[in-house]
Write a structure and sequence with these properties.
Number of strands: 10
Helix content: 25-40%
Largest sheet: 8 strands, parallel, barrel
Strand content: 5-15%
Number of domains: 1
Number of helices: 11
Structural class: alpha/beta
Oligomer: single chain
Radius of gyration: 19 Å
Distance between the termini: 30 Å
CATH superfamily: NADP-dependent oxidoreductase domain
CATH class: Alpha Beta
Order of helices and strands: EEEHEHEHEHEHEHEHHHEHH
């Protein structure tokens, strides 16, 4: 496993990490989820990403129980705040009230005293940036959060957060969590340069484009797959995307790696990326994903991939 600094921060995270979105506390049985988490940690993964909204708190509970057998200081645990957790009018967004109450609930569900990273899960247009920054700064001073960050924010919104934090002499956001994969490169023109400029790490999600980049849909949508039950996933499985993956699968075969490993290694080719957040519904997937940290794509392979993708922003 490789470990990379979180931007210019001193903390290091495993280049391949484990996320709990759509799976733990939901579609994956708890025992299997626990096995995945233990397998990841045993194979060098130190960063586990979760959020309060994942399975409405259940994902945090599953992860919390799974990590109790491991030394807390060996792990990097993150969670997020923004999405509504109840019908209560204040149980949503990035108000000081919601942030302060949500972090305590997340800590309790996870069974930990602090979060290594705490993300503003989306931008909140209804809450002044000063209020958001001051709340996050207070959480750092209270020792409940070590680093705070943003998730799926625009470059302008990140600039606003950094500028506001500097004006207030508060802790700066240290990390952004955007979507990034071979088929979606929207962060390259602006987000990546802004993150590098301000010393922020990037921990990216959806590196396999909801499974498209594993090659599992090369011959159609398998019966029982998540794409058959999630309409938004099925919409992304276009013939154009699948055809690209078919060609990329040939590149992967020539290199002696799986399509998923090729996709993860391609993301990790960028020095701006601190970690790639992977999902896993069984331990073997964890083992396969972890191997991507060892793969270095040579210029010839990268050139072949670029020719197939033909989507440089």
């Amino acid at each position: 496993m490789q470990y990379r600094r979180l931007g210019r921060a001193g903390m290091k995270v495993s280049s391949v990490s484990l996320g709990a979105w759509l799976t733990y506390g939901g579609s994956v049985e708890r025992d299997v989820a626990t096995q995945c988490i233990h397998t990841a940690i045993e194979n060098g993964v130190n960063f586990i990403d979760v959020a309060d909204i994942y399975a409405k708190g259940e994902a945090e509970i599953v992860v919390g129980k799974a990590i109790r057998d491991h030394k807390r200081s060996d792990l990097v645990i993150s969670s997020k705040v923004f999405w509504p957790m109840s019908e209560n009018v204040n149980d949503t967004g990035l108000s000081r009230k919601h942030i302060m109450e949500s972090v305590d609930k997340s800590l309790k569900r996870l069974g930990v005293d602090y979060l290594d990273m705490y993300f503003c899960h989306r931008y909140d247009a209804e809450t002044p940036m000063e209020e958001v920054v001051r709340a996050m700064d207070d959480l750092v001073h209270q020792g409940k959060v070590l680093y705070w960050g943003t998730s799926t924010w625009t470059a302008a919104q990140i600039e606003d957060a950094v500028g506001t934090a500097r004006w207030l002499n508060s802790y700066l956001p240290q990390v952004e969590q955007p979507r990034y994969n071979m088929l979606d490169r929207h962060i390259e023109p602006e987000i990546m340069p802004i993150a590098a400029k301000h010393g922020m790490g990037l921990v990216v999600y959806s590196p396999l484009a909801q499974g498209i980049l594993t090659g599992k849909y090369n011959d159609g949508i398998p019966e029982g797959s998540r794409a058959t039950t999630h309409e938004w996933m099925a919409k992304g499985i276009t013939e154009e995307a699948v055809e690209k993956v078919r060609q990329l699968s040939e590149v992967a075969a020539d290199l002696g790696v799986s399509m998923a490993q090729l996709a993860l290694a391609w993301v990790l080719r960028r020095p701006e990326i601190s970690s790639v957040i992977t999902g896993a519904s069984r331990p073997q997937q964890v083992l396969d994903n972890v191997k991507a940290a060892e793969i270095e794509l040579d210029p010839a392979a990268l050139a072949a991939i670029e020719e197939i993708l033909d989507n440089t922003p």
